[in-house]
Amino acid sequence: MALASRLKVLARLDIAERRLPQDGQIQMKVDGSEVDLRVSTMPTVHGEKIVLRILDKSNLLLDLDHLGYSPQNQRLWQNAMGRPYGMLLVTGPTGSGKTTTLYATLAALNTRERNIVTVEDPVEFSLPGINQVSINRKAGLTFANSLRAIVRQDPDIIMIGEIRDQETAAIAVQAALTGHLVLSTLHTNDAAGTLTRLIEMGIEPFLVASSVIVVQAQRLVRSICPACREAYVIDGEGLLAMGLTDIEQVLHGQQTVTLFRGKGCPRCNNTGYKGRRAIQEIMALNPELRTLIAEKANADRLKAEAVAQEMVTLKKDGLVKALQGETTLEEVLRVAFTDY
C-alpha cells in the first residue's frame, strides 16, 4: 500500500482513487541518463496492480541500419519511405518496438526542407527539428482534432502515435490521399490483419487499397548473450519436440542443423540472453493485393497472396536469425508460434 501510494504521488496520480485504472509518468535521472517511467495502475480483487514501463532515452536507436532488418525487408521499407505520399503502418503488441521504428524512420526522413509533425500519446522522446504534439484529453486535445489542425499546418510528413478509432483512421487515410506521407501504428497480429482491421473500423476498402503503401509487423525477441553463446546440433525429432511443426523451414533437406543458445554467465545474470532485437514481416502492397483488398478479402487470403509474392513472414524472419545465432529457436516460437 505504501509503495503503491508513493509511486502514484511521483506519477501525479490520485492516491485516493483505487477503483479505476490510472496512467501517469515519472521522470528521473539514473547514472546521468534521463529515464522515463510510464506508470499504469489497475484495481484487482487483491488490491492495486502497478506496472512500470522503462523508457531509457540514452538507448534510443535512431538508425534503421541497427534495427535488425534483413536486406530484403530494409529495401522494402526504405522504398516506401521514399514515396511522396501514402501510408506506412507498423503493427505489433505493446512493447514490440513500434515507436522506435517510427522514430528511426522519421530521423532518416528529417531534413530542413521537410515539415514533419507528430501527434503522440504521450511524446516518448524529443526529436530535434520535428514538431511533436502530445495528446491532452483533459483539455480536449485528441488524436482526431489534433490531426484536423495538423493538416492545416502544411506538413509534408505526419506521424500518428496510434490509430485507435474510425475518426482518426479516416483523417489519416484522407491525409495520405492528399499529398502527405503518413506513418502510424495499430495493434494487430500481423501485416495482413492490419488491412482488414482498417476496414472493420469503417474505412472503405477502396480507400485502404489506395492509401496504404506498406505494412510492417514486428516482435521483439531476446538476443543470445555474446559472452556465453554456444552452438549445438539438433535433428528433426528435436525440432519437433521444441514445437516447430514445419521442420523443413530449418533443416532444408539436411538431417541435422546447427543452432545457438546461451549457457549463462555473470554478464547475462545466467539467463543466456543479453538485449533484444526485432523480427519483422513487411507487406508491400502491389496491384494483386490492392485488388483483393477492394474485394474485401479476409486476412488469411491477403497473407497467402503476400507469401506467394515472396513476403518473409515473422516466423521465417525469426528462423533465419536463429540460424545466424542472433536469437534462439525457443524465442522465435514464443512470439511467432502460429505464423507460417
Biggest beta sheet summary? 7 strands, mixed
Instruction: Give the helix/strand class.
Output: alpha/beta
Low-confidence blocks of residues? none
What is the residue-mean pLDDT, rounded to a whole number?
Answer: 92
Q: Could you tell me the number of beta strands? A: 12
Which strand order do you get reading across the main beta sheet? 6-5-7-8-4-9-12
Radius of gyration: 22 Å
Beta-strand content bin: 25-35%
Q: What is the 3D shape?
A: globular
Q: SSE order, as H and E?
A: HEEEHEHEEHEHEHHEEHHEEHHHH
End-to-end separation: 46 Å
Written overview of the protein:
The protein is an alpha/beta fold and 340 residues long. Helices cover 34% and strands 28% of the residues. The protein is built from 13 helices and twelve strands. The strands form three sheets. A seven-stranded mixed sheet has the order 6-5-7-8-4-9-12, with helices on both faces. A hairpin with a 2-residue loop joins strand 2 (33-44) and strand 3. Helix 6 (191-200) runs antiparallel to helix 11 (299-308) and helix 10 (287-294) packs antiparallel against helix 11 (299-308). The chain is globular and about 65 Å long. The model has no long low-confidence stretch (mean pLDDT 92).
